[in-house]
Design brief:
single chain, about 325 residues, alpha+beta, five-stranded antiparallel beta sheet, about 55% helix
C-alpha cells in the first residue's frame, strides 16, 4: 500500500500537464486507501498488540511464581534463590522473544511488507548460527534440566565430569566447583552426564576401629554402641545426627587385629565435628577399659576411603 502511494505521488509531480487532476485523483485514492487501512488493518494490528501484551503479562506472572516456587515447597531459599532467578529470567526472556516474533509476523504483512525474503534470510542466518553454537545450545538445555530437576544446590559437594568439590556458582551454561585444595573448576553444563551429590539430605560417616585380635568382640561392640548413643544424646551433637549410630559388627580380620565398623548418619557438613568427637570418646573409653589397639603404631580410629562423602577434612 505505501509503495503504490509513493509511485502515484511521483507520477503526479513529474507530469506537468494535468498535474492538478492527477494530484486530486491521488489524494482521492490515498483517502480510500487510508480509510481501508483504518477500517480493516488497524483493528487487526491493535488486536495483535493487545494479545501480545496480555501474553507478556501472563509470562511475567509465571516467572514471578517460578521465583517463589521454592518458598511454597519449603526448600531452603538461600540455596534455591539463584537457581530460580536464573530459570525464571531465561523463561521470561525466551517467552518474550517468541511473543514479539509472532506479533511481528502478524503486523508487518498488514503494513504491506513482504515477509518472504526476510524469513528466508533469517533462516539462512539461523542455520549458520546453529551450526556454530551447538555446544552452547547443549550447555543451556542441559543446564535448564539440572535446575528444573534440582540435581544439586549451592553449597552441595558434588562430583561431576570427573571433578569433585563444593558448588559455588551455577548458571544454565556452567557450574563452578571449589575442591579441597582450593582450586576452582568451571564445568560446562554439556559435559555433565552423571551427577554424584555427596551432601544431599544426609551424609553417612563410616568409621573403622582397629582393635587387638584377642579383645572380646561382644564387649567391644557393646562399648561402641554405648559411645554412639552417648554422642547422639549429647545436646551439642543431637541436632547434627539424623539417625542412631549403628555398629554392624566386624568389618575385617587381618593378622593380629580386627576392624569394627561404625556407621553414623549426620547432616551435610556436620560429619567432621561428629567424627572428631567419636574418635576422642572411643580412645578414652578403650584406654579406661584396657582394650588394646590392633597395632601399636596405628591410631584407634581411621576413616574409610571416601565413598559418599569427603571425610579427609575430618
Amino acid at each position: 500500500m505505501l509503495v503504490s502511494l509513493l509511485i502515484r505521488l511521483q507520477a503526479a509531480v513529474m507530469v506537468p500537464n494535468g498535474g492538478k487532476h492527477n494530484l486530486l485523483q491521488l489524494l482521492d485514492d490515498w483517502g480510500d486507501d487510508a480509510f481501508d487501512f483504518l477500517r480493516y488493518r488497524v483493528p487487526k494490528i491493535v488486536g495483535v498488540l493487545i494479545v501480545a501484551f496480555i501474553l507478556a503479562r501472563l509470562l511475567r506472572r509465571l516467572s514471578q511464581h517460578l521465583s517463589a516456587f521454592s518458598n511454597r515447597l519449603g526448600l531452603p531459599a538461600g540455596l534455591r534463590a539463584q537457581q530460580l532467578r536464573t530459570l525464571s529470567s531465561v523463561v521470561y526472556s525466551v517467552g518474550l522473544f517468541v511473543i514479539l516474533f509472532l506479533a511481528a509476523m502478524q503486523i508487518l504483512p498488514q503494513l504491506g511488507i513482504n515477509m518472504g525474503p526476510l524469513l528466508a534470510s533469517a533462516g539462512v542466518v539461523g542455520l549458520a548460527i546453529g551450526f556454530g553454537a551447538q555446544t552452547l545450545v547443549r550447555d543451556f538445555i542441559n543446564g535448564f534440566f539440572i535446575l528444573v530437576e534440582n540435581q544439586y544446590d549451592l553449597g552441595d559437594t558434588v562430583k561431576i565430569a570427573g571433578v569433585q568439590g563444593a558448588v559455588e556458582t551455577m548458571t544454565l551454561r556452567r557450574t563452578v566447583l571449589r575442591d579441597d585444595s582450593g582450586a576452582l573448576h568451571t564445568v560446562p553444563s554439556s559435559q555433565i552426564t552423571v551427577v554424584s551429590n555427596l551432601t544431599r539430605d544426609w551424609t553417612q560417616l563410616p568409621l573403622h576401629i582397629s582393635v587387638a585380635y584377642g579383645a572380646d568382640s561382644d564387649r567391644v561392640m557393646a562399648l561402641l554402641n554405648e559411645i554412639g548413643a552417648e554422642v547422639a544424646n549429647d545436646p551439642k551433637y543431637a541436632d547434627k545426627i539424623v539417625a542412631k549410630p549403628e555398629v554392624p559388627g566386624i568389618d575385617k580380620v587381618s593378622g593380629g587385629e580386627v576392624d569394627y565398623l561404625m556407621l553414623v548418619k549426620t547432616k551435610p557438613g556436620a560429619q567432621f565435628a561428629v567424627s572428631r568427637e567419636l574418635r576422642r570418646r572411643i580412645k578414652a573409653c578403650f584406654e579406661q577399659n584396657k582394650i588394646e589397639p590392633g597395632n601399636p603404631n596405628r591410631v584407634y580410629v581411621a576413616d574409610a576411603p571416601a565413598t559418599s562423602t569427603n571425610l579427609q577434612g575430618g
